[in-house]
Amino acid sequence: MIVITLDEVIKNKVNGLCYGNRIILPFKAHFLKVIIENDIITDFSSSSKGISIVEHEAYSDLYFLEYKMLSDDLSKYEAIKIVLVEEGKNIFDWNNHRKIALYLAEKHKVTIEETDADILFIE
Amino acid sequence: MLAFFVSRNIFAAETKSVTDSLATSGGHASQLPNPIMVLPFVVLLLLIATGPIFYRHFWERNYHKISILLGLLTVSYYLVFINDFKSVEHSVIEYISFIALLTSLFIASGSILIKVNFKAAPVSNVLFLLFGAVISNLIGTTGASMLLIRPFIKMNRDRMKPYLIIFFIFIVSNIGGALTPIGDPPLFLGFLRGVPFFWVIQNVFPIWIIGILLTLLVFFLFDISNKNTAETVTEKGKWLVELKGSKNLIYFAIIIIAVFIDPKVMSWVPSLSPLPFGIREIIMFAVAFASFKSADLEILKANEFDFEPIKEVAYLFIGIFLTMIPALQLIAFESRVYSHYLTQATFYWSTGVLSAVLDNAPTYLNFLSAAMGKFGLDINLAADVKHFVIVDEVYLRAISVSAVFFGAMTYIGNGPNFMVKSISERAGIEMPSFFTYIIKYSLPILLPVFVLIWLLFFRG
Q1: Packing angle between helix B360-374 and helix B308-337, nearest 10 degrees?
Q2: What is the reported pLDDT for B24?
Q3: What are phi and psi of B119, to 5 degrees?
Q4: Which residue is closest to B426 within chain A, CA to CA?
Q5: Which of A66-80, B57-71, B192-206, B325-339 has the lowest mean pLDDT?
Q6: Helix (H), strand (E) at residue A64
Q7: What SS3 class is residue A85?
Q8: Is B304 in Cβ contact with A121 (below 8 Å)?
Q9: How do A98-104 and A39-41 pair as beta strands?
Q10: For A121, which residue in chain B has the nearest alpha carbon?
Q11: Is B219's pLDDT higher than 90?
């Protein structure tokens, strides 16, 4: 499986996937902060009750443990917002911190966008 | 107030004389309900207060069923046991008016995006909050909160601290909206019952200005100690403020005009009776529909628009409106008997304390009912309400001020408080917990202001 970067994902508008409470992102990253509805998740340890992240060779799985069906709880205008650093880049360099927004679309698709100035997102 | 009556064992009376057990409701005689029927109301309010905090996921999945079930319990009692259809009908009519206003304001404000191209400093923040306080009287605290919280966060994004959001809740989501019936739901309920529209601004303005200025002063002191304080910085080549979706301002204007399109306010307006709504409500729902259908998708996305908050208000308030019928009738009846115990200070603090921990809209109605009961007047009769405004203004002023102001004391005191908290958290801001909000902010900041207002205006 080909590994693609976040830049390529954004540029080529590559979609992620959503099944139930699982979101599959087509890149690998270090996750710093995930916001879903009112929950701000920063604990990504195995004991976390909010989220479980499983990394594969070329993609990442995010399981939202407090949800059964994400599509039942999120409207098409609501974003899951994530602060992350692409794998291989220096996590301590603030310039590498990227903010993305995920929107659930039809047929299990998840659109991935870099947040613009209109989206409120404070790291 | 309920505790006051219970302490005097007046709800324990099993039997009353036929004359005593009659209360008027909606212009008709009806039997006084059994005091036990206050329980669904109390249970619902307690669940609303505790659900979002202590058992959030259960509450999110079941609140609508619980609210409707408790409401139906009260309706069944009225229809089957005391054959009183009028009281239920009256509440349903009032509920439809209430939810029509909130829905239309919510959707119209969600379809507008205000972009600010400057970074905030203490003075600009004070001016922004003052503007929010004023505008909340025109588009409601719900509309103003929805409209202004995002630009407020954005202009403070490099100096964001929780106190900024807390003061926004204090000033824009609550205290600001004390001047008109559009401002805050309790005052709109009073207007629906017969309180003249301009009575509020004529009687509350001096208290409002003191409350707003004192709170803004404390905010300013907080804000200048923000380590990230800087001079207001504007982004070159851009307008300071940009408005997207400005056609919705026309919708706002229609909603405000529609508030007055009621046969009780303008005699030429036709009544649609026996339908439980009028032309006003049709206009408001039509505006809500048109506003959403014509909304720019990019704006809805930027506002992360979701029907959930208004859906929650709609479900919870149908339960509140139905379950509070017995409480309103009993309080009105008993307050006639114990009227000599009730002073303006009693009304100010009782309304305030309950508005802080319960929703302020039903609290306002309960205490208005009690205050009118002192004069042998019935809250269910518009003529009685109009008469009450003439014979007394101190009690109504105390109730109006404290219902609106004290709504800021907790996250659950007023609907927009939770919406603002939710929007802030979705933006990534860690908000204080329920108790931290009270202990760290509302008790030390708001309580002294409210004590001062009591000393100046309602000590008697």
Answers
A1: 20
A2: 44
A3: -100, 140
A4: A38
A5: B325-339
A6: strand A60-64
A7: strand
A8: no
A9: unpaired
A10: B427
A11: yes
> A36's torsion region: left (phi>0), alpha (psi -120 to 50) or beta?
beta
Q: For residue B337, which amino acid is it?
A: V
Count of alpha carbons within 13 angstroms of residue B332, beta-carbon side: 27
pLDDT band at residue A17 using 50, 70 and 90 as cut-offs: very high
Count of CB pairs separated by less than 8 Å, A with B: 59
Domain ranges of chain A: 6-114
Determine how many CB atoms are found less than 10 A away from the CB of residue B329: 25
- For chain B, how big is the Rg over CA atoms in Å? 22
Q: Six-digit token pair at B432? A: 């204080």
Per-residue pLDDT of B411-433, as tens digits, reads 878 878 888 888 888 888 888 88
In the structure, what pLDDT confidence band is assigned to residue B143 with cuts at 50, 70 and 90? confident
Residues whose CB falls within 8 Å of the CB of residue A110, separated by 6 or more in sequence, listed in order? A15, A16, A17, A18, A23, A24, A25, A102, A103, A104
Strand stretches in B34-188, DSSP E: 113-116, 118-119
What are the domain boundaries of chain B?
42-457
CB-nearest to A120 from B150, B305, B308 is: B150
Output the six-digit token pair for B262.
Answer: 């009621």
Give tens-digit pLDDT for B147-184. Answer: 899 889 988 888 889 999 999 999 999 999 999 998 99
Mean pLDDT score of chain B: 84
Determine, for residues A77 and B115 on separate chains, whether the beta-carbon distance falls below 8 Å. Answer: no
Please indicate whether, in this complex, the C-beta atoms of A118 and B153 are within 8 angstroms of each other.
Answer: no
Tell me: pLDDT of B26 over 70: no
What's the rounded mean pLDDT across residues B217-223? 95
Report how far Cα A15 is from the mean position of its chain's Cα atoms. Answer: 11
- For residues A116 and B115, is the Cβ–Cβ distance under 8 A? no
Spatial CA neighbour of B25 closest among B17, B14, B33: B33
Tally the C-alpha atoms within 13 A of residue B263's C-alpha that lie toward its C-beta.
Answer: 8
- Alpha helices, DSSP H, located in B172-270: 185-193, 199-224, 247-259
Nearest to B428 among A77, A103, A122 (CB): A122
A117 pLDDT band (50/70/90 cuts)? low
Rounded to 5 degrees, φ, ψ at A54 are -120, 125
Report whether A81 contacts A114 (CB < 8 A): no
Inter-chain contact A77–B426, Cβ cutoff 8 Å?
Answer: no
* A69 touches B at CB < 8 Å: no
Q: Does A61 touch chain B (CB under 8 A)?
A: no
pLDDT in tens, B101-137: 889 988 988 888 888 777 788 999 999 999 999 999 9
